[in-house]
Design brief:
This protein has 148 residues and is mostly helical. It folds into 2 domains: 11-81; 93-147. The protein has helices at residues 11-22, 24-31, 35-41, 52-66, 71-81, 93-114, 122-147. The protein starts with 10 loop residues before the first helix and ends with a helix.
Amino acid sequence: MMQKIRQPDSFAGAVTLICVAIGLPAAAAAVGKSEGLVRQWGDPDVDALPNPEQCLRLDAAYTEATGEPGPIGMIYAEKAKQPGAEDHKPAPIHQRLCDLGKQVGDVYAATTEALADGKVNSRERAAILRECGDVEQVIRKIKRDLRG
C-alpha cells in the first residue's frame, strides 16, 4: 500500500517523527546532543526546542534515511503560509466521526502491513506515526466543533 506523506502539526511532533523514523541515537548524533535532550524536543509539554541549525541537521538525517522531505522544514513552511489562527471549518459530528473511523482504519492498515513480515522497520514506524497524527487532527477538529 502506498502511503501519502502526512506531516505532524507541531515542532515537537516533527522531532518525534524524526526520532521514530531514524532512531533516537541517530537523531542525537545528527545534532551532537544527548538522547535525553532530543527526547525533550519531541515532548509537547516541554518548552525546549532545537535551534535552526539543529533543525536543519535533523531534517537532513531524516531525508537521508527515508527519502522524504524533512518534517521540521514542512512545519516552518506551513506556519509561514498561515500566520495567526488556523482556519477552522465546522462540520457535522457524524461527518467527523466518519473521518475518525477512516483515519483509525488507516492506522490499522499501516500497522497490519508493517507487521506482515513480523518486524517493523523505521519507515513503517514513521508511516504508522503519520497515520496516528491524522487521528489526532480529526480528534482536535471534533473538540473544536463541540466547543463552538
